């Protein structure tokens, strides 16, 4: 009978939606701001036209309008291909004549070839003209080089040896994978040595709990997807060239693909990268952690760098559970406006959410907002991809006034028409009520939501959230800020303002510098404005508070939740029995949702969706199956918003309870999920029964909050904790800081999570952007590197 207890709770739960839907609104077709007008389908950058006018003085056009070729489509295939290739060769030639070969580059000789044969063997050093012809020309037949040598390394070590030699000889190289690019990025311009990584095509590992795949750069995308399908997963990337493109090239070009709207950018899905620099140095950034806030996220620079910073040799990527159903509709619309309206309707119903939800949102500062804040992908006023641009230094007083006067805070979100909602976002004025909480209310008023939810939401600021790459409770659903911050404005140490405040979901023009500032803790520059992708507000939410008999059951429950709940799973949190006892003891008004017993582990599962009855049925079916399978010992589903808040109070109140209990040693660790709780058990054995060791956190993304609670601080206890906790984490390929950052506390411990070569590159970037070291000194990087003479 006990196993059916959860079903009684489920049946008793009210079917009333926890959150009311907002009224539908139509957006204006253009937004005037600062004398400029943003309109659908029009480029409004005032510098663009001037730039192209200037270019016409120096360069001939490099491509013909599409209409020049449409007439050829009715010709025979062979004749048409020959004609197009001939025109494109000519077109490319007009540009190529403006490019002069760099005279500092050496010319290949027989000694070079002999050296490469010693490294790779005879068969992997290609000089055959027919094979070189294929490698020298892109698949469109548009760009053609004249390389005399193709190298096929089989390992990272061989790539390192090749580049080390080429760097010494000043031999130019071009990395190449499947050669499916469209802009001539993977073929030589002149006689560069081609390094093709196609022979590096091994799958290194796959974790079926987390869905993380580690492979070499030469793996073909379609082959990876076929491998994953057999394990119930799929690649988040789907391209027309998937049968020949390679994952290394996909990452190097930050490929988007057909399902970008669902799975997002590779900046959010690539968890780790191994790359070889021009001098042969191997940068080991091949982490498999969803959260790792230890220093600058250097791998982000290589994503989309097109092989110009280094050659990617290995990749770890987050894959998704294979959907159990797919549907496809082929529709016709009378005009483009109808397409936009259809997109609006589908998005609100199907909902593609924003990824950030942090507890400190009630007080983080959102900043000055402009009318151009509300811009959408491709310059369209479509609801699918609402981008919020904001400064980090104060919230507009008019917004607060409008929210108060029009009862926004009491739930009357539809009381203002859209024009009024836009008009109140005009006069920036600092206010004492500059909280992320208020920003969230504003976004909800137009049917959207912030993707970040933190325990410190009442006081944290959005600039700080970005600078520390905050994670939060809903990271498992909405992902990292690296995938959701679209633009950033930052001020460098010398006062230079870097305008990276783009609002485009796709922009592969050069290195994505904003990624360096996300998680840099203010050590490279001060963030002043942010553009962030928000998501449609969910029309249904469900929260289950569950008990599990052991940690293995928690793991299996997570694995099943990812498979069965899929697109509606938004949070998966856990806490142990010691954490529950602490909360019940030190927080007033908190009650045990599953009395009278205290179980070994507790799990909170939240779902968010668009159809309340469907979402409810899906969650109930999952819970009943899990209980019958022995994964759940007991559980209850929140019947209303008050009960949901009381459940979350247990999880979010742990930090407050720890402070009330006395002294606390806190550690924010990221670990492989199967190893996550082992460190808690080992720490208990190490410290003995006299110390209270607690473990809780974000099980869905492998983030453990390890806490040692005692009446007072004691150096002898600290000596038992550190450096053991860092050494243990490093041994298991974890991160010593999942989401809190390094700050002053862990700056000198960065080597436990980052290789010496990676730390050295970080220090070089710091010195480049802040040569005098005035920005947030003594933080993030080791003192002996930043201040060797001190």
From TrEMBL:
It holds the Pfam family FAD-oxidase_C. Keywords: FAD, Flavoprotein, Oxidoreductase. Its cofactor is FAD. Transmembrane segments: none annotated. GO terms for molecular function: (R)-2-hydroxyglutarate dehydrogenase activity; FAD binding. The keyword Isomerase does not apply. It comes from the Eukaryota. Gene3D superfamilies: 3.30.465.10, 3.30.70.2190, 3.30.70.2740, Uridine Diphospho-n-acetylenolpyruvylglucosamine Reductase, domain 2, Vanillyl-alcohol Oxidase, Chain A, domain 4. Residues 143-322, 449-537 form the FAD-binding PCMH-type domain. Its EC number is 1.1.99.39. It catalyses: (R)-2-hydroxyglutarate + A = 2-oxoglutarate + AH2. The keyword Oxidoreductase applies. Belongs to the FAD-binding oxidoreductase/transferase type 4 family. This is D-2-hydroxyglutarate dehydrogenase. It comes from Nelumbo nucifera (Sacred lotus).
């Amino acid at each position: 009978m006990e196993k059916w207890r959860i079903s009684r709770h489920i049946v008793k739960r009210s079917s009333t939606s926890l959150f009311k839907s907002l009224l539908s609104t139509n957006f204006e077709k253009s937004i005037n701001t600062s004398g400029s007008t943003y309109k659908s389908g029009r480029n409004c950058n005032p510098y663009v036209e001037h730039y192209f006018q200037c270019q016409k003085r120096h360069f001939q056009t490099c491509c013909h309008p599409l209409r020049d070729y449409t007439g050829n489509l009715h010709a025979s295939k062979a004749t048409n291909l020959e004609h197009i290739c001939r025109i494109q060769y000519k077109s490319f030639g007009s540009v190529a004549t403006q490019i002069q070969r760099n005279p500092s580059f050496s010319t290949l000789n027989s000694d070079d070839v002999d050296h490469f044969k010693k490294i790779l063997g005879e068969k992997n050093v290609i000089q055959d003209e027919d094979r070189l012809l294929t490698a020298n020309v892109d698949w469109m037949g548009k760009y053609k080089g004249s390389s005399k040598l193709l190298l096929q390394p089989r390992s990272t070590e061989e790539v390192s040896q090749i580049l080390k030699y080429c760097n010494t000889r000043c031999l130019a190289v071009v990395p190449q994978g499947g050669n499916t690019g469209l802009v001539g990025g993977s073929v030589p311009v002149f006689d560069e040595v081609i390094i093709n990584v196609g022979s590096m095509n091994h799958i290194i590992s796959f974790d079926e709990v987390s869905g993380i795949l580690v492979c070499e750069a030469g793996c073909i995308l379609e082959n990876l997807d076929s491998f994953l399908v057999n394990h119930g997963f799929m690649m988040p990337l789907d391209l027309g060239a998937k049968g020949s493109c390679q994952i290394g090239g996909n990452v190097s070009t930050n490929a988007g693909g057909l399902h970008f709207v669902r799975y997002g950018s590779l900046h959010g899905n690539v968890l780790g990268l191994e790359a070889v620099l021009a001098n042969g140095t191997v940068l080991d950034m091949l982490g498999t952690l969803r959260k790792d806030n230890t220093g600058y996220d250097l791998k982000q620079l290589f994503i989309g760098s097109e092989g110009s910073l280094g050659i990617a040799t290995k990749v770890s990527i987050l894959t998704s559970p294979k959907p159990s159903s797919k549907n496809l509709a082929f529709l016709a619309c009378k005009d483009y406006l109808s397409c936009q309206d259809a997109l609006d309707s589908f998005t609100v119903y199907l909902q593609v959410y924003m990824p950030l939800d942090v507890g400190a949102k009630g007080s983080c500062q959102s900043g000055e907002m402009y009318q151009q804040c509300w811009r959408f992908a491709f310059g369209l006023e479509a609801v699918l991809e609402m981008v919020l641009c904001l400064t980090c230094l104060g919230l507009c007083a008019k917004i607060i006034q409008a929210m108060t006067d029009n009862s926004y805070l009491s739930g009357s979100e539809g009381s203002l028409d859209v024009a009024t909602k836009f008009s109140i976002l005009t006069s920036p004025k600092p206010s004492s009520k500059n909280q992320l909480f208020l920003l969230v209310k504003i976004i909800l008023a137009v049917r959207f939501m912030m993707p970040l939810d933190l325990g410190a939401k009442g006081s944290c600021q959005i600039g700080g959230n970005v600078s520390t790459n905050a994670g939060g409770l809903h990271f498992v659903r909405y992902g990292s800020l690296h995938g959701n911050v679209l633009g950033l404005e930052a001020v460098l140490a010398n006062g230079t303002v870097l305008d990276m405040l783009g609002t485009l979901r796709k922009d592969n023009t050069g290195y994505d510098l904003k990624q360096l500032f996300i998680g840099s803790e203010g050590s490279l520059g001060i963030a002043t404005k942010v553009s962030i992708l928000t998501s449609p507000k969910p029309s249904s939410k469900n929260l289950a508070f569950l008990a599990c008999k052991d940690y293995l059951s928690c793991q299996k429950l997570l694995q099943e939740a990812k498979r069965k709940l899929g697109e509606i799973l938004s949070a998966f949190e856990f806490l142990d029995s010691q954490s529950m006892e602490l909360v019940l003891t030190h927080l007033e008004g908190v009650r045990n949702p599953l009395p009278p017993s205290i179980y070994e582990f507790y799990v909170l599962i939240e779902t968010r969706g668009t159809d309340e009855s469907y979402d409810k049925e899906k969650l109930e079916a999952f819970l009943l199956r899990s209980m019958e399978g022995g994964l759940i010992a007991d559980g209850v589903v929140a019947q209303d918003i008050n009960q949901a808040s009381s459940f979350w109070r247990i999880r979010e109140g742990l930090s407050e309870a720890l402070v009330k209990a006395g002294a606390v040693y806190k550690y924010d660790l990221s670990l492989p999920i199967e190893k996550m709780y082992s460190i808690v058990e080992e720490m208990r054995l190490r410290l003995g029964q006299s110390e209270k060791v607690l473990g809780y956190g974000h099980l869905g993304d492998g983030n453990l909050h390890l806490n040692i609670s005692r009446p007072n601080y004691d150096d002898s206890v600290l000596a038992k904790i550190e450096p053991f906790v860092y050494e243990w984490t490093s041994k298991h390929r974890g991160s010593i800081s999942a989401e809190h950052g390094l700050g002053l506390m862990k700056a000198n411990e960065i080597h436990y999570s980052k290789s010496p070569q990676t730390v050295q590159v970080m220090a070089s970037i710091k010195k480049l952007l802040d040569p005098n070291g005035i920005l947030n000194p003594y933080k993030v990087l080791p003192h002996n590197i930043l201040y060797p003479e001190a």
